[in-house]
Amino acid sequence: MTIQNVPTTLFTGFFGVGKTTAIRSLLARKPANENWAILVNEFGEIAVDQAVLEDGSTNGQENRLTIREIPGGCMCCVANVPMRMAITEILRRAKPDRLLIEPTGLGHPAGILDELRKDDLKDVVDVGAMICLVDPRYVGDARITGVDVFRDQVHLADVLIANKSDLASEDDLAGFRDWAAALFPPKLVIVEAKMGEIDGTLLDLKANDERLPLFPHLHDHAETQPAPNIGTSQPGRPVRAVNAGNGYQGCGWVFAPEDIFEQDALVDFLGPPGPNDLKNVERLKGVFRLGTEWILIDRTQGEISVTPIAYRRDSRLEIILPEGEAVDWNGIETKLISLLSPRT
């Protein structure tokens, strides 16, 4: 490849901390003359984040943004062919001025960094400081801080961002500051942000060292398999894909472009507290057609937001729950179909 030293930033953070929102914010402020590329990895086989990021390309800059998605769990695997091929493809196709990489919330960053530093990529990409986003309200929650992947996301990061600081109490923020200040080795930057509005100059920071993971075995898992062909949806007959791993289970659906949902009933069903199957949702994200308008529904545990979105290709949804939770995916699908407006 003739491409060299593409500035590259890796964004990490657990489910729902706002990684995609932060990248959307950066895209909205992207220099108009620059080509950016984004490699996004999702837990499930149904890509929702890609649709959201496409919506973040504003001001007529769509031709200067290339997005490549790796579905179905962690992009880092033993052979790592999917990730290496994806990076090579997106760099050759886009010839970007900058590359942003967003792994799934359960993605371990060590394997990704290892790949980026190998001989065939180390001169192609110029890896900057790794950015980790956290929700300051949950830094003391054992369900998160007790997860080894999260601990390594924080440990390996050079920049630590307390996102959603506007939703946190003063006690939450004080607890975050004390916790962050005690981390070793210390971070290059520790900042607080609202709604993903992070400083673009963070993308140009360089790391002072190459940190070693606390739990190196976490990215020594089986090789990622190609995503299955889930078929094509028909009006009133969505296609779906189910997957599980790392203590979580998920299901995603794609509905036909002709399918139109009723907003109030849809939000009532997907939002908290929701029916039994959705009470313990860890993450839920979807884009839906309402007619001439489309919306993004974004739920993290007990919080939900509904916002307009410019995406127009199809309606799609991904739901993630802890692996031990009983869930009736068939029942959820039947309910979603019942929320479609009658066809005329």
Annotate the secondary structure layout.
Elements lengths: L5 E7 L6 H10 L7 E6 L7 H7 L9 E6 L10 H14 L3 E5 L6 H8 L2 H4 L2 E3 L3 E4 L7 H4 L2 H9 L2 E4 L7 H12 L7 E4 L46 E7 L2 E8 L7 H8 L12 E7 L4 E7 L2 E6 L6 E8 L6 H10 L6
Parallel strand pairs: 1-4, 1-5, 1-6, 2-3, 2-4, 6-7, 7-8
Antiparallel strand pairs: 9-10, 10-14, 11-12, 11-14, 12-13
Helix pairs in contact: 1-2
Describe it.
The chain has 344 residues and is of the alpha/beta class. The protein has 2 domains: 6-219, 3-Layer(aba) Sandwich (Rossmann fold), CATH 3.40.50.300; 239-338, Hypothetical Protein Yjia, Chain: A,domain 2, CATH 3.30.1220. It has 10 helices and 14 strands. The strands form 2 sheets. Strands 1, 2, 3, 4, 5, 6, 7 and 8 form an 8-stranded parallel sheet that branches. 45% of the residues are buried. The model is unreliable at 222-226 (pLDDT under 50).
Percent of residues in helices: 25-40%
The CATH architecture of the largest domain is 3-Layer(aba) Sandwich
The stretches of 5 or more residues where confidence is low (pLDDT under 50) are 222-226
Name of the CATH superfamily of the largest domain: P-loop containing nucleotide triphosphate hydrolases
CATH C-level category of the largest domain: Alpha Beta
Structural class: alpha/beta
